[in-house]
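2.7 Reproducibility. Because tokenized structures are sensitive to small changes in the input, we list the exact sequence used for DNA polymerase IV, including any N-terminal residues retained from the expression construct. No trimming or masking was applied before prediction.
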Amino acid sequence: MISLQQRSIAHFDLDCFFVSVECLSDSSLKGKPLLVGGRSDRAVVAACSYEARQYGIHSAMPMKTALKLCPHALVRNGDMEKYSQFSKDVTDIIARQAPLYEKSSIDEFYLDLSGMDKYFGTMKWTAELRQLIIKETGLPISFGLASNKMISKVATNEVKPNGQLQIPFGNEKIFLAPMPIEKLPMVGKETGAQLRQRGVENVKTLSEIPVALLEAWLGKNGISLWNKANGIDDTPVIPYHEQKSISTESTFAADTIDMQFINAELVRMTEKIAFELRQQNKLTGCVTIKIRYSDFETVTKQMSIPYTCCDHLLLEKVKELFKKLYDRRLLIRLIGVRFSHMVQGNYQISLFDDTQEMIALYQAIDHIKNRFGWQYLMKGTNVLSPEKKKLAGPTPLRPYYKKF
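Resulting structure tokens (single pass, no recycling of outputs):
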């Protein structure tokens, strides 16, 4: 059996993914400062090219600010449907080739290649997979190959764009030592400032600080940071399963055909599990609706959607799908909503045409729901009369995982 210390983990990252897809669609955009996002002054930058980054532009920056920094930058609206399809194309290629992989976000993957050196050259195999992805999709992609997930991700970041790097087993600390502390995962502006105030500027210095002292400075995060500075990461590669889903159902106290009530229930259930998606920092790429009629016939219908976890986008798809599915005009006993094809990500990347205010609104809504419970803040259409509340019957307070 291979120990954790002898693992071989590859981290693949599609370079400037949204920008690369846009350049693939329009080759005239290559080599130019390109911003992907909404066009209004209050919109935000969802992604930017390396050429745009040279002007100090970064993702989540207000579009107005970005255009002040680089007035001649080109702006393209985001197309989440197109990006989702390219992400799925890359996933399919990796799934065909890799023994074990984890899709950690729409554009990042971890592959566990432990033991493959007995039969293949792991670096050679990984490089060939990278070339296959480039050939079949046309997208640039980089990878790092190392003994754990953290080192492989840092290695990828060091060779982007369109590069590859292997860190041999035993060289983890040597690789990290000269790097600024901000190169480590978990070291953001605040943590970095705290450490630099104490004279800690590179990873080598950080790795030599007693773990008890780091814990005193940073709490439990100090222990995790000490491990990272010393190249230690036992996090497993979690197998990716498209079938993983989150869903909820509502069985009515009495069979009904009251569309106003059913619409309110669809809104309530969608908001509930969309909130759960955001809590887990996940996006869904597939929506399924379930209907059980009064004669107990049960039907389901699903559709693939651009990755998102936004209430207003998901509600549109849920209602559209329900209208297509509900065709018998019988009384309904139960309805259900399921989100599947889930990947890591946050809702900012899908709000291409939304403003900073919209993003702030979602953050405020989720803050209130986290503090008081999801059911204490909902759309007005969810407010039912006492009679219709009786019709709804008891409902679970939290989403649950199951198969329809």
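Residues 348-352, 393-404 have pLDDT under 50 and may be disordered.
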